[in-house]
Design brief:
By secondary structure, the chain is of the alpha+beta class. The protein has two domains: 68 residues, 2,3-Dihydroxybiphenyl 1,2-Dioxygenase, domain 1 (Roll), CATH 3.10.180.10; 73 residues, no CATH class. The protein contains five helices and seven strands. The strands form two sheets. A four-stranded mixed sheet has the order 4-7-6-5. A three-stranded antiparallel sheet has the order 1-2-3. The radius of gyration is 15 Å and the shape is globular.
C-alpha cells in the first residue's frame, strides 16, 4: 500500500486490520527513496516516499493517490517466475537475495530462512509493481 505518511498509515491500517506494523530500517528502501513498514502476518507492506526525494513511489502517488500500488506473490521458484516474465517481454529491474544475518536483522530472527525476490517491470499485463519471491520459514515442528 502506498501512503504519503508512513506513521499515519501504520496507525490507520493497524487499527483497520487489528494488527501492528514494524518499520524496516535501513537496507534498500532508502535507495528507492522510500520508508517501509511491514506486517508479515497480515501480508501487508506500507511504503511512503522520503521527504524531498524523487522516487517512483512519489510519482505514482502524485498520479494515482494512495492505495494499492503493487503485489508480492510468494512462489516456490522465483527464478522460474522471473524467466516466465522475461519470456513474455517483462524485465526484472531489481533482485533481493538476503543472507541469514540480513534476514534476521531486517525481519526478525527466526522469521525466514530464505528471502529472495525479483521486482518485475511495471508494464502491461502486470501494471503496477509486481514482485515474485521465495520466503521460506523455519520448520517449527517438534
Amino acid at each position: 500500500m502506498g501512503v504519503w505518511d508512513l506513521d499515519a498509515g501504520m496507525r490507520f491500517f493497524g487499527e483497520l486490520l487489528q494488527t501492528s506494523f514494524v518499520e524496516s530500517l535501513g537496507g534498500e528502501a532508502a535507495d528507492f527513496g522510500v520508508r517501509v513498514a511491514i506486517n508479515f502476518d497480515a501480508g501487508v507492506e506500507l511504503v511512503a516516499p522520503l521527504p524531498d526525494r524523487e522516487s517512483q513511489l512519489r510519482t505514482t502517488l502524485e498520479e494515482r493517490g494512495e492505495g494499492v500500488i503493487g503485489v508480492v506473490f510468494a512462489v516456490p521458484d522465483a527464478d522460474a517466475s522471473r524467466d516466465t516474465a522475461a519470456a513474455n517481454g517483462i524485465d526484472t529491474y531489481y533482485t533481493l537475495d538476503y543472507d541469514q544475518a540480513t534476514i534476521d536483522a531486517r525481519h526478525g530472527p527466526g522469521r525466514f530462512t530464505r528471502f529472495y525476490e525479483h521486482f518485475l517491470a511495471s508494464e502491461a499485463p502486470l501494471s503496477g509493481t509486481t514482485l515474485v519471491g521465495e520466503f521460506d520459514t523455519p520448520d517449527l515442528s517438534p
